[in-house]
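input
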Amino acid sequence: MLETDSGYRTCVAGMISGFGNGLTETWCQTRYPLPSPFHFKCLEQLSSGFASELDRVACSNYFRTIAMRIEADASRR
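output
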């Protein structure tokens, strides 16, 4: 059903390629259960090189946090 929703398709495209503005990103986040677009930025920088040490650390921390959530979820089962 979501696949036929033009708003959903717009939001997925924005999540992957980057939102044009914060209003669109906020609109999408309030309407659809989409993951953070930050991981796409990190994956792109992983292959092209990080713009700064801060970007590298931010991405590392982001994925570390995701991994900890996954491990915590697995231990609850």
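quick obs: The CA atoms of residues 58 and 64 lie 10 Å apart.
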